[in-house]
Amino acid sequence: MLDAERQSLLRKLPAVDAVLRGPAARLAERHGRAATAAAVREVLEGLRREIASGGSPDVSGEAVAGGAARLLSGRGLRRVVNATGVVLHTNLGRAVLSEHAAEAAVRAATRYSNLEYDLSSGRRGSRYDHAVPLLRQLTGAEDALVVNNCAGATLLALSALAGDGEEGPPEVVVSRGQLIEIGGGFRIPEVLELSGVTLREVGTTNRTRLSDYERALSGRTSAILWVHPSNFEIRGFTEAVGVSELATLGPPVVADLGSGALMPVGGEPLVQTAVREGAELVLFSGDKLLGGPQAGIAVGSARLVRRMRRHPLVRALRADKLCLAALEATLRAYLEGRAEEEIPAQRMLREPAEELEARARRLASSVARAAPGLEVEVVPSVARSGGGTLPGHEIPSRAVRVSGTDPEALAARLRDAEPPVVGWVHEGSLLLDVRTLLPGDEEAVVEALRGAVRG
To answer: Considering only CA atoms, which of 241, 248, 166, 171 is closest in space to residue 203?
Structure first.
C-alpha cells in the first residue's frame, strides 16, 4: 500500500466521541461510557497497526463499534460449552463442580460460616481443620492440609522439610525421569530451588533403580521425592522405583501424585494406595480426577503435616471458604458412594459408549432440523481425561460431525455464540464430542449452529 493510501485510511478513522455518540451509544448504555470508550480506543489502535502493516480494514464507525462490542462481550469469565471431548480441559476450567459442591460454595459465599470459629468452645478455630476428617477417612492418613493448589502444596511440603539436613545444606533426592514440567511452566527443579533444598538427581531419564537412590542418601538428605509423571509417559526400555520400595530407605518419601484419583480410572495411582505403601506425604490436586475445586491437598503423617501447617508460607497459600466448602461436599460424595453419579468428571469418564451414541443421534437430528444447510452425521471419536492426567488413556466416544461449509469459519462463529461452543476441526469438518456436554448444552449447541447458519 502506498503511503498516501495509508494516510487516507488513517484520516478516515472516526473519533472516539463520534463512535460513542453514534453506533456505540447502546453499548455505552449497557456497559458504561468509560468501559465502552476504552474498548473503542483499543479497536482504533488495532486498526492503526493494521493500516501501518499494509492492511485495508473497514474503518467505519459501525465497524469500530462492532469491534468494541466483541471486546466487551468477550471479557470476564463466561459459560462455555465444552464439545472437545477433553473432560478436564485446563483452558476451559478443568473439573465442573457437582450440584452439591456448587450449592455448598454458594452457601459459604452468601452466609456467615464457622471458617475460623470453634462452635463447641466459642473461641477462634482454624480453617486448616476443615475437610481433615473426611480426607483421613478416605485416604487412611493421620492428618491432612488443604492449600490453594497442588504446586503450592509441593512448595510448602519441601519448604517445611528444608531444615532436616543434619550435615549441611538439605537435599531432596529425585529421579531424573521425574523432573517434569507441567502446565504454565511449573517445573519440579524450580520448585525445589524455591523451597531452599538442594536437588540430588539420580538415575537416567528412562531408567532409575533402587540402588541409585541408596547411593545418593547422606546425612544431608531431608526427603525422597517421588513424582507421578501425569502429563506424559515413557515407553520401551524403562525402569522405575515405586513408593513402597522407596519407603524402605529411611528418609521420608513425598509422593506428588498430581491427579488426585480416589477411584480407579485408567491405571492412575490412587492416593490411598500411596499412603498405604508408606509415603509420609502425598500431594494431589482438587480439580483434576477428584472432580472438585482448585486445591492442593496434602495427606500423610501427623508429624510432617504439622510442620507444613506451622510454616510461615502456609498463610500465603491458604484455601478460601468457597474452596473448602466445595471440597467438603465433593469428598462426602466419595464417602457416601455417590461420586460416580454425582461428580461430573467421574460421570463423564465412565459414561458407556451406547448411551453416548443415543445422545449423539438425538443431537444430530436436532441440528439437521435447525440448520438444514449443513451436513450432519454421528461418528466415533476419542475423548481424553485432560488436565495433565492419563496421557495415553483413550476413551471411546461419539461426536457429531458437521460439514458442508468452511469448518474454521464455522468454529469461529460458534465461539462467538452465546454461550460460546468449543469443538475442534479435523479433516475438513467440525467435530462436537458429546461426552463432555453437560445437561442443557445440547440445546445451546443447536441454537449456536442455527445462528451460525443464519449469520
So the answer is: 241
pLDDT tens sequence across 118-162: 999 999 999 999 999 999 999 999 999 999 999 899 989 988 987
- Rounded-to-integer distance, Cα 340 and Cα 16, Å: 54
Among 255, 237, 333, CA closest to 298: 255
Residue reference for cell 478460601: 320
In 3D space, the residue among 308, 313, 263 whose CA is nearest the CA of residue 282 turns out to be 308
In terms of domains, do 330 and 199 share one?
yes
Beta bridge partners of 403: 375
CA distances from 381 to 375, 424, 426, 449 (A): 18, 11, 11, 20
Measured CA to CA, the distance from residue 226 to residue 320 in angstroms comes to 28
DSSP letter for 438, please.
P
Q: How far is Cα 65 from Cα 30, in angstroms, rounded to an integer?
A: 13
Query: What is the pLDDT, as a whole number, of residue 429?
Result: 95
* 257: containing domain: 99-342
pLDDT at 78 over 80: yes
H or E element, residue 145: strand 143-147
Same domain, 250 and 292: yes
| DSSP track, 299-339 | EE-HHHHHHHHHSTTHHHHB--HHHHHHHHHHHHHHHTT-H
Q: How many domains are there within the chain?
A: 3
CATH for 361:
3.90.1150.180
Catalogue the E-assigned strands of 155-287.
171-175, 181-182, 186-187, 198-202, 221-227, 253-258, 281-285
pTM confidence score: 0.87
Q: Which of 394, 297, 445 is nearest to 87 (CA)?
A: 394
**Cβ proximity of 384 and 88 under 8 Å:** no
Contact 143, 306 (CB under 8 A): yes
Within 8 A by CB and 6+ apart from 15, the residues are none
* Residue 106, domain CATH: 3.40.640.10
The C-alpha cell that represents 216 in the structure block: 545418593
Same domain, 32 and 173: no
Of 286, 308, 342, the one marking the end of a domain is 342
Q: How far apart are the first and last CA of the chain?
A: 31
Q: Are residues 212 and 310 in the same domain?
A: yes
Averaged pLDDT of the chain: 90
Residue type present at position 318: R
Q: Residue 214: how many CA atoms within 13 Å on its side-chain side? A: 7
Tell me which of 342, 362, 389 is where a domain ends: 342
